[in-house]
Design goal:
By secondary structure, the protein is α+β, with helices and mostly antiparallel strands. The chain folds into two domains: 3-84, duf1285 like domain (duf1285 like fold); 89-184, duf1285 protein fold (Roll). It is built from three helices and 15 strands. A six-stranded mixed β-sheet has the order 3-2-1-6-5-4. A six-stranded mixed β-sheet has the order 9-8-7-12-11-10. Strands 13-14-15 form a three-stranded antiparallel β-sheet, with no helix packed on it. A hairpin with a 4-residue loop joins strand 8 and strand 9.
Length: 185
């Protein structure tokens, strides 16, 4: 990777970290319904119409908070419910730099934020007990997550290594010196 590309990734990581942090202590008194929905594919809607302006979606995403199983858009003045069909964000790219235990895995979201899979942004794979289908996601903090699309999950499977965890053979990936399980086999 060129130094320009590495510099771009570092700038996007810093920008994403700043953008994704906000004051989680806001406790507004005005409550309501935003009449908004985030579809499973990451598309945002208001009153049934797609919000087509990316800057507006990014602005709303900065106000998103999860409390239990409910999602809200929170400002210092208002707290408005919002329907989230799966996770509020989806991956559009996964990039792997390096190899083995020393590799770093970067995930780019549909809002062009870049996350580095690490202890701060861990990868988690839940398996549906009925269908056995994996559901991989990366935490962005504040109980919010990015769902990895199938192609990004398969990219991780391609570089996965086998490990023994709790007496079970699992496939997983290394990022930032930590092993993240993709599933048992």
């Amino acid at each position: 990777m060129s130094s320009h590309a590495s510099s771009d990734v570092l700038e996007r990581l810093a920008s994403s970290a700043e953008r994704l942090s906000y004051n989680a202590d806001w406790q507004p008194t005005q409550l309501g319904d935003s009449e908004m929905r985030i579809a499973k594919n990451g598309t945002w809607y208001h009153q049934g119409d797609e919000i087509k302006r990316p800057a507006l979606v990014r602005l709303f995403s900065r106000l998103l908070r999860r409390e239990g199983e409910q999602y809200f858009l929170v400002t210092p003045v208002e707290k408005l419910s919002i329907v989230v069909e799966d996770t509020p964000f989806v991956s559009i790219d996964t990039r792997i730099e390096g190899e083995g235990r020393e590799q770093s895995v970067y995930v780019t979201t549909n809002l062009d934020d870049v996350l580095l899979i690490s202890s701060e942004h861990p990868l988690c794979v839940e398996v549906d007990p009925q269908t056995q289908e994996p559901s991989p996601s990366v935490s962005i903090g504040h109980h919010l997550a990015v769902r990895l699309q199938r192609s990004d999950f398969y990219r991780l499977v391609d570089v996965a290594t086998e490990q023994m965890l709790a007496g079970q053979r699992v496939l997983g990936v290394w990022s930032q010196g930590e092993f993240y399980s993709l599933g048992a086999f």
